[in-house]
């Protein structure tokens, strides 16, 4: 048989083994990632140039930004326009290419040598075609390892999208809350300024001391500082949101002005831990890492037997013109490196991965518990402000207004009551913001979505209504504070 025939047989064997290697796909697993995100958030993930064209993407972002943004619209803008997320999506293409590469055999070695005799005529020609035999045997194992690694890439990519959604929601609620709190701070500053103006008039008339005037001015200046701080906090929160949305400037952002109110009922903790353990993608990645290392341990055991063995065909033409053809084998002799160290290392990595999975499961349970407790605490505080403290402050303002109108209290008492009410409003806004931040965090902790709230039992609702009837005073909303008039100043 000629050298060409032997080489052809070997090449056909190589092509037959590698014929099932996966081919690159255009979406590179994106459809799987898209389904993971949609199933947990009801949002659509987009990959520039793959699932959506650049022109359509930019037009959609412009259309969304024309309107007053809600939290859902902000999430959609981020999924379209966040460059960091788009960079993470490119990992899909890289992972798919590595999967394809793992399914390919290494190229065979072709050796050729030509030798000339020192006497007589003719030449000696030797040609060999050699393939790494172990590379052929380990091909299915490498494919399995690469397939698991690619699944990890898809899960990490989906997890990055879920993290971005949670971050956008938190940033949106923070920006809304800071904006709403700024309104309260401005109103406090206005009331403090009214009080300071009244104090200056009384001081000029000689009706209050320098100390009293200084105290009113101090309160006004402090209110001004708090307003400036609230403005800076709002600008920072809006800038953070704009960055997450992939916008260079926050100036084009128009947010819905107020935080949403509390939902009528709250979710139940029952099943949240189980949901987190089942749906957390970072935990799924850790579990797949354990599976990947099991496969790698098998590969280490295989290479420990014979780390470098090559098989092929050689043909040689002697000086007389005779061709000699036959198979060839080349193998290392494992005298020094027996492969035991490599196997021990893979075993250690596998044990480490199992411990990391166990540790992450404990962490997930604790995160779910803490996030739910924070949600309930923020809800309780917000409810207390809404049902108890704000009505009480309103009642104080109303009663002070009546006594002011009856000339039993001066303007400073009325303005002080109004200022305290506005401070309570600011605290209520802060607690409401904390609730929605906790809500976004809990959704992220349990895997991206929360179960539907459980409506309270009818008798429980009646009991709550009776309780709040006892706690809440029967008051009307407070009226606007009138501007101070000179003929009431002497009642302070």
Molecular structure report:
66% of the residues lie in helices and 7% in strands. It is an alpha+beta fold. It has one domain: Outer membrane efflux proteins (OEP) (Up-down Bundle). Strands 1-2-3-4 form a four-stranded antiparallel sheet. The longest helix has 66 residues.
List key phrases describing it.
492 residues, alpha+beta, Outer membrane efflux proteins (OEP), disordered C terminus
Task: Set out the fold topology.
Elements lengths: L2 H16 L11 H12 L12 H13 L4 H11 L1 H20 L6 E7 L8 E9 H5 L1 H66 L5 H35 L27 H8 L1 H25 L3 E9 L5 E9 L8 H66 L5 H35 L12 H14 L21
Antiparallel strand pairs: 1-2, 2-3, 3-4
Helix pairs in contact: 2-7, 3-4, 4-7, 5-7, 7-8, 7-10, 7-12, 9-11, 10-11, 11-12
> What percent of residues adopt helix (DSSP H or I)?
55-70%
Oligomer: single chain
Q: Output the number of helix runs.
A: 13
Order of helices and strands: HHHHHEEHHHHHEEHHH
Largest sheet: 4 strands, antiparallel
- Number-wise, the strands total 4
> Looking across the biggest beta sheet, what order are the strands in?
1-2-3-4
Give the class from helix and strand content and strand pairing. alpha+beta
């Amino acid at each position: 048989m000629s050298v060409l025939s032997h080489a052809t047989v070997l090449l056909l064997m190589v092509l037959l083994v590698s014929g099932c290697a996966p081919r690159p796909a255009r979406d590179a697993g994106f459809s799987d990632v898209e389904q993971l995100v949609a199933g947990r958030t009801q949002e659509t993930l987009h990959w520039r140039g793959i699932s959506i064209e650049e022109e359509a993407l930019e037009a959609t972002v412009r259309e969304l930004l024309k309107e007053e943004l809600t939290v859902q619209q902000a999430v959609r803008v981020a999924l379209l326009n966040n460059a960091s997320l788009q960079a993470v999506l490119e990992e899909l293409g890289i992972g798919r290419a590595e999967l394809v590469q793992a399914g390919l055999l290494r190229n065979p070695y072709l050796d050729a040598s030509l030798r000339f005799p020192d006497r007589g005529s003719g030449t000696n020609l030797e040609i060999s075609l050699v393939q790494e035999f172990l590379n052929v045997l380990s091909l299915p194992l490498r494919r399995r390892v690469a397939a698991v690694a690619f699944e990890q890439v898809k899960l990490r990519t989906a997890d990055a999208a879920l993290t971005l959604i949670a971050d956008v929601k938190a940033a949106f609620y923070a920006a809304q809350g800071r904006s709403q709190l700024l309104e309260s701070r401005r109103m406090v500053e206005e009331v403090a300024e009214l009080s300071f103006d009244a104090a200056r008039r009384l001081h000029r008339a000689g009706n209050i001391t320098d100390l009293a005037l200084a105290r009113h001015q101090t309160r006004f200046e402090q209110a001004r500082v708090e307003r400036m701080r609230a403005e800076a906090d709002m600008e920072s929160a809006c800038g953070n949101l704009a960055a997450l949305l992939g916008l260079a400037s926050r100036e084009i952002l128009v947010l819905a002005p107020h935080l949403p109110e509390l939902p009528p009922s709250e979710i139940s903790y029952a099943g949240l831990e189980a949901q987190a353990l089942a749906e957390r993608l970072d935990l799924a990645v850790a579990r797949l890492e354990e599976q990947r290392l099991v496969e790698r341990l098998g590969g280490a055991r295989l290479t420990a037997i014979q780390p470098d063995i090559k098989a092929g065909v050689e043909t040689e033409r002697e000086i007389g013109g005779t061709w000699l053809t036959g198979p060839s084998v080349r193998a290392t002799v494992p005298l020094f490196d027996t492969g035991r160290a490599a196997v021990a290392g893979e075993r250690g990595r596998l044990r480490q991965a199992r411990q990391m999975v166990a540790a992450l499961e404990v962490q997930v349970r604790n995160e779910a518990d803490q996030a739910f407790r924070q949600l309930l605490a923020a809800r309780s505080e917000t409810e207390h402000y809404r049902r108890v403290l704000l009505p009480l402050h309103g009642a104080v303002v109303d009663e002070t207004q009546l006594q002011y109108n009856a000339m039993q209290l001066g303007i400073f008492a009325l303005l002080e009551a109004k200022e305290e009410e506005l401070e309570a409003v600011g605290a209520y806004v802060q607690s409401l913001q904390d609730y929605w931040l906790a809500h976004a965090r809990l959704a992220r902790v349990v895997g991206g979505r929360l179960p539907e709230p459980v409506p309270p039992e009818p008798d429980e609702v009646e009991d709550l209504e009776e309780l709040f009837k006892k706690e809440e005073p029967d008051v009307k909303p407070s009226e606007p504070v009138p501007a101070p008039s000179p003929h009431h100043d002497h009642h302070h």
